[in-house]
Amino acid sequence: MKRNKPKYKQIIDAAVVVIAENGYHQAQVSKIAKQAGVADGTIYLYFQNKEDILISVFREKMGLFVEKIEEVIAGKDAAAEKLLVMIENHFKRLSADQHLAIVTQLELRQTNKELRLKINEVLKEYFLLVDKILRHGQERGEFPADLDIRLARQMIFGTMDETVTTWVMNEQKYNLEALAPAVHNLLLNGCGLKS
């Protein structure tokens, strides 16, 4: 499978850098190829076009994101603790890769409806993870039984997303990871997860 080949990963990683530094619309395939150290034509062995590269970047990076978060929350019992660890890891992963933060927070905000639908499809995996944490909290009696899971998920993801976007827009001038406990506390109170 193409996704398991080293050149695929090289191209994905190169695309993150090129898109972050040039913007999606100015990120030519030739620039991505040069950054990846491959011939222009090699790109088309793995991707149909630039849009496919952007979606693939998001799919690959978000897949790893969710996988890593699932690993670290697996050993936690309390849903509130799982939520904190998820927020910490979300902030940690994006603050560790500023190019990826720029791509996810700025360049994936495309107005093209078809592209937005594809991005939202990739996000479903993350949303399911948040839902799982919230349902776990309900089952344990930590969170209210009548909690609107969909609305709570939107608040949680939206808050994390906007916090990272603001950090990116402020040129990463402060410690994003340090905000996790405060964001966690606000979410617990704001979503009615704390009595």
From TrEMBL:
Looking up InterPro entries in the UniProt record yields: Homeodomain-like_sf, HTH-type_TetR-like_transc_reg, HTH_TetR, Tet_transcr_reg_TetR-rel_C_sf, Tscrpt_reg_YsiA_C
The UniProt entry, under Pfam families, shows:
TetR_C_4 (PF08359), TetR_N (PF00440)
List residues annotated as DNA-binding: 28-47
Q: Which GO terms describe its molecular function?
A: DNA-binding transcription factor activity; transcription cis-regulatory region binding
Alphabetically sorted, this entry's keywords are: DNA-binding
- The HTH tetR-type domain extends over 5-65
What domain of life?
A: Bacteria
Q: Which PANTHER family match?
A: FATTY ACID METABOLISM REGULATOR PROTEIN (PTHR30055:SF195), HTH-TYPE TRANSCRIPTIONAL REGULATOR RUTR (PTHR30055)
Q: What is this protein called?
A: TetR/AcrR family transcriptional regulator
